[in-house]
């Protein structure tokens, strides 16, 4: 039988101290019962002997120390899951936020889960088509991969996230593909943009959305990505689906973690973030992947805004250590009007070689990718020289590369947020751009592919 404690001794902001408790554990959920009969959730942050420090999920207003009581539920945060989740919008705690009925649970799963056992992992090796040429052609996403997007304040990462969520598919397995979208600490305006965009395009039918707003409590923000990953694990490993998890914005998650850490009076680490930030991020990111002997998979695209556009800031720095590459958005390209402003040079997908080639994308993919990278890099150098020395100082071949670089940004990278390109369209566009260069310059492509695709 659950005990009800009327020993609340102190409330300070979002924290509350309950004395003389028994058998209460860290991270356990509690229910605060107010004098009016209203119930509010809380979570145990710290146990010190018989004292429990809890954090409120809602406002502390109306809590009367003498008349209110607390009941600990004997479990952590759980999510009700079932196939009916697809097409639904939930808040950050997994409660319906679309006006629909509550989910009839097939299972109730603890949201903390476990990182995937390395020995049980299968190597990511299958191409996922996002419909975005700068990703599909040059920094290919592979099923089971973790590929973050590094953005900055004011850059259109929300538009890119919505585009990927709408367009992403596993070639030949579209019917068994789902998207889990977690919005962490976003504004009402952004939440409305994502929800209306998914409904407008019909993508909502294969999507599970978790929306945590900027005015929701910090402790709920920490739960939101874990809610999304729990839903993804159910869809992938119970229902055998290919699941793409998009989480925006991881920076808001880390800020909430720092806030809770400060409330617990923990010793701060770099830039005030808790010393366990790396471990905490890893417990989320490592839940993505493929399992041996199982059809389903979880592929993850976490999106984060780099404070002050600093790649060495703890959040992008630690994320880069844990994940397999990064897609970087550029403010210079954004100012030029390139949509999406993906800077392909510093971007990297460490697993792209495993997901391309004959039988996956096309036989010429690796060669054309390398040639496009090399030509674009030389073209950018030529443009810099032109700025310093003037056009007259460049050779004819340098001018060709400079023109290639400009056309590459204009046609290949800048495709808009509504255009969905197949991998064949992306590869063919690459060949069209390579026609701007003499055949003698295509040194990274096999002659047989030049004959077949260049004519």
Automatic annotation (TrEMBL):
<keyword id="KW-0375">Hydrogen ion transport</keyword>
<comment type="similarity">
    <text>Belongs to the ATPase alpha/beta chains family.</text>
</comment>
<comment type="function">
    <text>Produces ATP from ADP in the presence of a proton gradient across the membrane. The V-type beta chain is a regulatory subunit.</text>
</comment>
<keyword id="KW-0066">ATP synthesis</keyword>
<dbReference type="InterPro" id="IPR020003">
    <property type="entry name" value="ATPase_a/bsu_AS"/>
</dbReference>
<dbReference type="GO" id="GO:0042777">
    <property type="term" value="P:proton motive force-driven plasma membrane ATP synthesis"/>
</dbReference>
<dbReference type="InterPro" id="IPR004100">
    <property type="entry name" value="ATPase_F1/V1/A1_a/bsu_N"/>
</dbReference>
<dbReference type="Pfam" id="PF02874">
    <property type="entry name" value="ATP-synt_ab_N"/>
</dbReference>
<keyword id="KW-0406">Ion transport</keyword>
<keyword id="KW-0813">Transport</keyword>
<dbReference type="Pfam" id="PF00006">
    <property type="entry name" value="ATP-synt_ab"/>
</dbReference>
<dbReference type="InterPro" id="IPR055190">
    <property type="entry name" value="ATP-synt_VA_C"/>
</dbReference>
<dbReference type="GO" id="GO:0005524">
    <property type="term" value="F:ATP binding"/>
</dbReference>
<feature type="domain" description="ATPase F1/V1/A1 complex alpha/beta subunit N-terminal">
    <location>
        <begin position="8"/>
        <end position="74"/>
    </location>
</feature>
<feature type="domain" description="ATP synthase A/B type C-terminal">
    <location>
        <begin position="354"/>
        <end position="453"/>
    </location>
</feature>
<protein>
    <recommendedName>
        <fullName>V-type ATP synthase beta chain</fullName>
    </recommendedName>
</protein>
<feature type="domain" description="ATPase F1/V1/A1 complex alpha/beta subunit nucleotide-binding">
    <location>
        <begin position="131"/>
        <end position="349"/>
    </location>
</feature>
<dbReference type="InterPro" id="IPR022879">
    <property type="entry name" value="V-ATPase_su_B/beta"/>
</dbReference>
<dbReference type="GO" id="GO:0046933">
    <property type="term" value="F:proton-transporting ATP synthase activity, rotational mechanism"/>
</dbReference>
<dbReference type="InterPro" id="IPR027417">
    <property type="entry name" value="P-loop_NTPase"/>
</dbReference>
<dbReference type="Pfam" id="PF22919">
    <property type="entry name" value="ATP-synt_VA_C"/>
</dbReference>
<dbReference type="InterPro" id="IPR000194">
    <property type="entry name" value="ATPase_F1/V1/A1_a/bsu_nucl-bd"/>
</dbReference>
């Amino acid at each position: 039988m659950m005990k009800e404690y009327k020993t609340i001794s102190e409330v300070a902001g979002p924290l509350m101290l309950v004395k003389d408790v028994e058998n209460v554990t860290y991270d356990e959920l509690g229910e605060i019962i107010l004098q009016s009969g209203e119930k509010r959730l809380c979570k145990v942050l710290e146990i010190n002997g018989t004292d429990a420090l809890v954090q409120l999920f809602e406002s502390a207003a109306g809590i009367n120390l003498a008349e209110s009581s607390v009941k600990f539920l004997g479990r952590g945060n759980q999510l009700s899951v079932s196939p009916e989740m697809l097409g639904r919008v939930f808040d950050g705690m997994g409660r319906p936020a679309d006006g629909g009925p509550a989910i009839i649970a097939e299972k109730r799963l603890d949201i903390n889960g476990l990182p995937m056992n390395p020995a049980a992992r299968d190597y990511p090796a299958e191409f996922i088509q996002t419909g975005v040429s700068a990703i599909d052609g040059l920094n290919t996403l592979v099923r089971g991969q973790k590929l973050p997007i590094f953005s900055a304040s004011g850059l259109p990462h929300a538009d890119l996230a919505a585009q990927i969520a709408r367009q992403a598919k596993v070639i030949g397995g579209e019917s068994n593909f789902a998207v889990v979208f977690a919005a962490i600490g976003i504004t009402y305006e952004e939440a409305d943009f994502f929800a209306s965009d998914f409904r407008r395009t019909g993508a909502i039918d294969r999507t599970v959305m978790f929306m945590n707003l900027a005015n929701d409590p910090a402790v709920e923000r920490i739960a939101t990505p874990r809610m999304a990953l729990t839903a993804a694990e159910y869809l992938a490993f119970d229902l055998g689906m290919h699941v793409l998890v998009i989480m925006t914005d991881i920076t808001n998650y880390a800020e909430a973690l720092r806030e809770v850490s400060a409330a617990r009076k923990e010793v701060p680490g770099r830039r005030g973030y808790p010393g366990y930030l790396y471990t905490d991020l890893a417990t989320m990111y490592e839940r993505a992947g493929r399992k041996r002997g199982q059809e389903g998979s979880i592929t993850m695209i976490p999106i984060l805004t780099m404070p002050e556009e600093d790649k060495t800031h703890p959040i992008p720095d630690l994320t880069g250590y844990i994940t397999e590459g990064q897609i970087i958005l550029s403010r210079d390209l954004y100012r030029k009007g390139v949509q999406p402003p993906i800077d392909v040079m510093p971007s990297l997908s460490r697993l792209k070689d495993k997901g391309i080639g004959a039988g996956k994308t096309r036989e010429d993919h690796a060669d054309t990718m390398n040639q496009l990278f090399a030509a674009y890099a030389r073209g950018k150098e030529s443009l810099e020289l032109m700025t310093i020395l003037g056009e007259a100082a460049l050779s004819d071949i340098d001018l060709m590369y400079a023109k290639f670089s400009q056309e590459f940004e204009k046609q290949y990278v800048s495709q808009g947020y509504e255009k969905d390109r197949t991998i064949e369209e992306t590869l063919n566009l690459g060949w069209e751009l390579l026609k701007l260069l003499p055949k003698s310059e295509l040194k990274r492509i096999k002659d047989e592919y030049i004959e077949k695709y260049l004519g």
